[in-house]
Amino acid sequence: MKKPRTRIQEKNSATILEAALDVFSAQGFRGATLDQIAEVAGLSKPNLLYYFPSKDAVHAALLSRLLTTWLDPLRAMNPAGEPVAEILAYVRRKLELSRDYPRESRLFANEILQGAPRMKAVIETDLKALVDEKAAVLTAWMDQGRIARLSPHHLIFSIWSLTQHYADFDVQVRAVLGEGHDPFAEAGEFLETLFARLLAP
Domain named HTH tetR-type: which ranges (predicted)? Predict the structure, then answer.
């Protein structure tokens, strides 16, 4: 039976993952090294290796944690709720994730751009199953005439792209808007208007 981790071990593990998030989101998987992660974490490399045996292991732990966070808003879409309100709530939650977890968004984007070598199995099983389940909910709402007839999968894809853009291209968004703008507040208002009109039956 595996011994539970001590408080110090939990703290060090969390410190390593936080440092790894900084390094991976900035450098990508290929550009990141264990030496860089250890330096940012303020630990020695041997100490880091006590908790995670390889760069792959650190990256896998981050991606596993990230996928749970990323999919929770979609899981929260309630089939018994009011369709437009449920979809707009999903848009808001996804935009809030981009605002609050920009490094995680870039980490996920980097993994996908590389062909998802460490996440493909999960994407093809767990992620696909959840998206298919919610696409069926959207289709049922369309069949009931409660929202406009659209491709349910592409509706979900469009929500992903239009919300995660604000995390993955944050520097570009802020440069174009200039000072005095809150990209996320403005985006929230715009996206709610956009999707409310798009979804109107």
Answer: 10-70
